[in-house]
Write a structure and sequence with these properties.
Number of strands: 35
Radius of gyration: 34 Å
Helix content: 25-40%
Number of helices: 26
Strand content: 15-25%
Structural class: alpha+beta
Shape: globular
RNA sequence: GCGGGCGUGGUGAAAUUGGUAGACACGCUAGAUUUAGGUUCUAGUGCCGUAAGGUGUGGGGGUUCGAGUCCCUCCGCCCGCACCA
């Protein structure tokens, strides 16, 4: 008898229409239930969704559907991170407009997302390029500005002289612009900044509260903020130059101060500039340092170099002791004071420097077990904590006490001839530069007036709308070239002035979108009442690549918006729980040309044969052999892409969703395989076949529960309720792969009993079917609806509550305990649960294997772990 | 260099507080059914061994009645930051 196959793609479309028509996923405004806000990082509308999106949104959807069934009022919205460079590049390349290109992409991707069957509230959809969104962002900017959280300052940027734009560090590749290939210049530009540093401490402390965030993300953020405690010490100069009489030096290791043998300053430190003014060789050296690249590779290659400026610094604790001052290429002007004292024995860099310029190396910290008299430094500096030596009054102290002793000594010294000391805290975190010389972004609502300076646009004049009539026929910012857009009157004095033509970094757009979803049509950025009810996001899901920037900026925005009254001030943390999902990876295929270039082939162009080392790949068309490359993230450049559309039209969305979650834990990368998707597809058919062909054999819908059950029925009922219990637990813990394993196990249990006969078995099978359908509901919602209807229900499964577990059924009344002899498992024993310890021992000693092992001796110890293990120690 | 993580069968992976290692799936083997074949169902499957038994979570050591789990050490891989004073 051939079974009817379940036609997933066809039926899925049907159920999607049913859901849409009944509008069940629109979040209601009744606040009579506990809320649950599930959010996946919203997509950039590149044009097509990829498998990473499918994985991301499948995870969120499972939670949303599960929480809905659990009785929560669920908010599960979707929107578009729609500003950004690709739209401008498309405009240049395809002679279109960024807005047209973006909105077309959004339409296409929305269709694709709908085909995945996501339980989304589309009524809250917005794109960050909607005027109705970015006008509120401009309002936020104005509020930040008036509160001093947005300000202008001059700073160094990567400038592409060909494309006429600022480049982010990531866009500079080996010193050249990623698009133009031009050598990137360091330029001093006046830019807008957001004062994230005001919240540095709070952002750091807040991390401790984020218990449901991955540890690695919290650590990355903590390192990024980079708080350090140290001393600011004043070093007097032996010679005054252009009014400079002293150097302020920041150190986290004042305990090593007697090991100092030089002072080093950054090339653009005021003292460097002053000294260079009268020393052309020094000026050349400083220029050379400035020219050097800033990329990581460059920094590694660069040799540590210094230039003795001739002026000496007086040691703060001994003014007779004068140390040389070097301008050095490895000192950062942006960190600390741009000046350090070098202690060669305690810092590898300083040691290398000292060896190169023949400076003294005085060991001042020794390991605890070393002999202080004979401890010397060779090629490696000693950077650990230890005992202070060769340091006068510090000798014998440990690192921490020496820190305090130096601070105290310096504080006690007479101000006149002393080195004033301050205990200071430094952060690595810098303020966030948000100016971009780009068109497709949120305009900064500022007018520059010759007389009044930077004047905020009055709120009543918002929004500042991007002009539509711009050209992309040449490089640079089209807003700058626009004949009239920037020409306005100063809101303050009325004189002719010029609009700010920089737009905001797109990271600003995504820093507050999660608040807007709580009230997407409100006439202020956020409705406080809605925000209070919905925020924080209960579960946020997205890629690890946003571990620092997006997630830190968002945490900053929720705080800053609290300060400006745009959000209730008690909502500090935007995301209560965070899941960072892994990538979808696939091997790639290529042929090498004669000049070692690689030509890549798509997976669908290739067929593989054999296994392991003998596995080879051939082109489907020609049969030519191609090489099998690494398993890497799916990307256009390597063509190792599987198009979700192809999978969904062939196997269905349920199949893609199931496979995405089935084999690996969510945070790990998954390898896309044809075998995997086929396996998922078979499982779908298996469930359908099981229910479709057996449904008429079991009890009819709503049959009352029988009083007695035979052993098969009872076994099945136990398996059913255990499955519900375990699937629920694993979904709650975001271990979808384990939940899926439990469902497999459950289906195996049902399968073994569908053709049996026994007391109450037909009822138990029907119960199992119903529970199974409810368990797969969140993961394979279409198939679940189909089965639910097949079981005779007129209702929608998506609206059913989550099944309740019969607690009595999930505890077995017999248990298997392991019998160990000297900790090694030898046998097992089936026994009634909660049998007394003495009774268990008695039974164990009756066992052959035990008496054989004992050989008449008395065991030295018997350990009984109730319901688990008996360990006999001989 | 600094910080963090990971290492379990042929493969993806499971494993409350330390308590029967390898659930579940892929693959493989055998049988049944159907078919032209795929499919489906049942059973088996860490490794060595015909078996009894031994052995086994990257290597070595330790704590413990008992270690994948805790401690020390070495090796390998991955991620983040990186001249941060």
């Amino acid at each position: 008898m051939a079974n009817k196959l379940y036609s997933a793609p066809k039926r899925e479309k049907y159920w999607q229409d049913v859901w849409a028509d009944s509008n069940i996923f629109a979040t209601n405004n009744l606040r009579n239930k506990p809320k649950c806000y599930i959010l996946e990082m919203f997509p950039y509308p590149s044009g097509r969704i990829h498998m990473g999106h499918v994985r991301n949104y499948a995870m969120g959807d499972i939670l949303a559907r599960y929480k809905r069934a659990k009785g929560f009022n669920v908010l599960h919205p979707m929107g578009w991170d729609a500003f950004g460079m690709p739209a401008e590049n498309a405009a240049i390349e395809h002679n279109t407009k960024p807005d047209k290109w973006t909105y077309k992409n959004i339409e296409a991707m929305k269709m694709q997302l709908k085909s995945i069957g996501l339980a989304l509230d589309w009524s809250r959809e917005f794109a960050t390029c909607n005027i109705s969104y970015y006008k509120h962002q401009q309002k936020l900017f104005l509020d930040f500005f008036s509160r001093g959280l947005a300000y202008r300052k001059s700073s160094k940027v990567n400038w592409d002289p060909v494309d006429h734009t600022v480049l982010a560090n990531e866009q500079v590749i080996e010193g050249r612009g990623w698009r133009s290939g031009a050598l990137v210049e360091q330029r001093e530009l006046t830019q807008w900044f957001l004062k994230i540093t005001e919240f540095a401490d709070d952002l750091l402390e807040g991390l401790a509260e984020l218990k449901n965030w991955p540890e690695n993300v919290r650590l990355m953020q903590a390192n990024w903020i980079g708080k350090s405690h140290g001393l600011l010490i004043r070093w007097k100069l032996n010679y005054e130059i252009e009014g400079i009489k002293e150097l302020k030096v920041y150190t986290t290791r004042p305990d090593t101060i007697f090991g100092a043998s030089f002072v080093a300053i950054a090339p653009d430190h005021p003292l460097s500039r002053a000294a260079a003014a009268t020393n052309s060789k020094l000026a050349d050296f400083c220029e050379e340092c400035r020219q050097a690249g800033t990329s990581i590779i460059d920094l590694e290659k660069i040799e540590k170099k210094g230039f003795d400026i001739g002026i000496k610094a007086k040691h703060p604790l001994d003014h007779e002791w004068e140390l040389p001052i070097y301008v050095a290429n490895f000192i950062l002007s942006e960190y600390g004071t741009g000046a350090v004292f070098g202690c060669p024995s305690g810092d590898q860099r300083d040691l290398d420097f000292a060896r190169k310029y023949n400076l003294p190396v005085i060991p001042v910290v020794a390991p605890r077990d070393a002999d202080p008299a004979n401890f010397t430094i060779g090629q490696k500096a000693f950077t650990d904590d230890g005992v202070i030596i060769n340091s006068k009054f510090l000798n014998g102290l440990d690192t921490k006490r020496a820190f305090d002793a130096v601070a105290k000594k310096l504080e006690e010294m007479d101000l006149d001839d002393a080195s004033v000391v301050e205990r200071v805290t430094y952060f690595r975190l810098r303020d966030w530069g948000i100016s971009r010389q780009r068109y497709w972004g949120c305009p900064i609502p500022i007018v520059h007036c010759d007389d009044c300076g930077a004047v905020p646009v009055p709120e009543k004049d918002l929004p500042i709308v991007l002009p539509g009539d711009v050209s992309f026929d040449t490089f640079g910012n089209p807003l700058d070239r626009h004949p009239s857009w920037a020409l306005v009157c100063c809101p303050k004095c009325g004189k002719l002035a010029r609009r700010e033509t920089d737009t905001m970094d797109t990271f600003v757009d995504s820093s507050w979108y999660y608040t807007r979803f709580t009230s997407p049509n409100h006439d202020t950025p956020v409705d406080h009442d809605s925000a209070k009810y919905w925020l924080p996001v209960d579960q946020y899901i997205g890629g690890i690549e946003h571990a620092i920037l997006h997630l830190l900026y968002s945490r900053f925005f929720s705080r800053a918006m609290g300060v400006t009254g745009n959000l209730p001030a008690d909502i500090k943390e935007p995301f209560n729980a965070l899941l960072t999902q892994g990538m979808v990876v696939h091997e790639c295929y290529f042929q090498k040309t004669t000049n070692e270039r690689r030509i890549w082939f798509e997976p669908k162009e290739v067929r593989t044969e054999g296994e392991g080392k003998n596995r080879i790949a051939k082109l489907v068309k020609s049969g030519e052999t191609v090489e099998i490359g690494d398993i890497v993230k799916m990307s256009k450049s390597k063509k190792n892409i599987i198009d979700p559309d192809d999978i969904i039209s062939k196997y269905g969305a349920d199949c893609a969703r199931w496979f995405m979650l089935s084999d690996s834990p969510p945070e790990r990368d998954i390898i896309w395989t044809e075998a995997g998707i086929v396996g998922a597809s078979k499982f779908i058919q298996r469930i359908w076949r099981l229910i479709d062909t057996t449904e008429q054999k079991v009890c009819k819908i709503h049959t009352p529960q029988p009083v007695n059950f035979g052993s098969d029925a009872l076994f099945l009922r136990r398996a059913s309720h255990k499955a519900v219990y375990l699937v629920e637990k694993n979904i709650e813990n975001l271990r979808f792969n384990v939940a899926i394993a439990q469902i497999h196990d459950f289906v195996n249990h049902i399968q073994l009993r569908v053709n049996k006969k026994g007391q109450g078995l037909d009822w138990a099978i029907r119960e199992a079917f119903e529970l199974l359908v409810q368990l797969i509901g969140p993961i394979m919602p279409h198939l679940a609806e189909e089965c639910w209807s097949r079981l005779g229900y007129q209702t929608l499964l998506a609206e059913q509550p989550w099944p309740t577990v019969d607690k009595e059924l999930i505890v077995d009344d017999t248990v298997t305990i392991a019998i160990q002899i000297n900790g090694k498992r030898k046998d097992e024993l089936r026994i009634k649960r909660s049998t007394s310890s003495d009774e268990v021992k008695r039974k164990v000693f009756e066992l052959d294997i035990v008496s054989r092992a004992l050989k008449g001796k008395t065991p030295s110890k018997v350990i009984v772990v109730p319901n688990k293990i008996v360990n006999i120690v001989i």
